[in-house]
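Final report, section 2: Outcomes. Of the targets proposed, Transcriptional regulator, LysR family is the one most frequently requested by collaborating groups, and we therefore present its record in full.
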Amino acid sequence: MLDLRRLHVLREFSVRGTIAATAAALGYTPSAVSQQLATLERETGVALLDRSARGAELTDAGRLLVTQAEDILALVEATESVLAEQSDLALGVVTVTAFPTAAVAFAPLLVPPLRRHEGMQLLLRQTLLATGTQQVRSREVDIALVDDWSGQHPGRGPEGGLRHINLMRDPMVLAVPRGHALADPSTPVVLEGLLNESWIVTPESERSRYGTDRLLSEVGGLPSAAWEFEGLGTVLSLVSRGIGIAAVPALAMVGAPAGLVYRRLPASAPERHVYAVVRSVAARRPAVQVTLAALRDAAQQVNREIAGIMVA
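The predicted structure is given below as tokens.
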């Protein structure tokens, strides 16, 4: 009989491509992953991996079993969701992944309502990479908080067995240190005038940089003297020390250091939408349902907090 855990390891190997990466993703040692896959080969009676000095890759039989494993694991999850619905209790572990600013803003607001459900546990992970949707699709996590700058609103309907739930819009705002001329709300924010300022930005590899580049593209782009630092937390810390100014998503204001003033930008400034992505079948689990409800409530609270911090 095929073991579901070993099928999961094989499917994970098909995604990660190496034994080491599979082990890191699953929290195992590489030797444990190798042993699980070797045992699965004995159970099936066929070679699933082609091993060499350079590594390992799936054989044709391995790829066939991965395809079947996807269907088997999806059916198991669907069955578990149906059974969970019958109990009507929020039980088990719900795993959520989020980009950093969403994790900082939402995590404190999720704990109180979810702690009321003694039979469930929340695991919240942060990721800098735009891999949340893929992690939901591959069943690595139950829910992903993702951002979208395209304005195409994927939350309008299901996509490949996934649901996109629109939580909030997140406009770009201007962060300046207290004492800066632009900290005075009576001073208008004019994009052309911002080019004379010292700018602090995130690298092009970070998604928040897209909003800054789009904002300043209207006036010729970033000044050549702009300095790059990884992470919006670092950027805002430097701004609070008077080292420069920055344009950041409003969500970054939550939990940011003191000494900052946030100004609204012109209506043409870019904004992103924040979504919760969940597998449609997983959304039937009561524990996932209460987590989604808590995320919606948290988004409303975050919006109110942002409105209270913002300076006109």
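The first strand starts at residue 49 and ends at 52.
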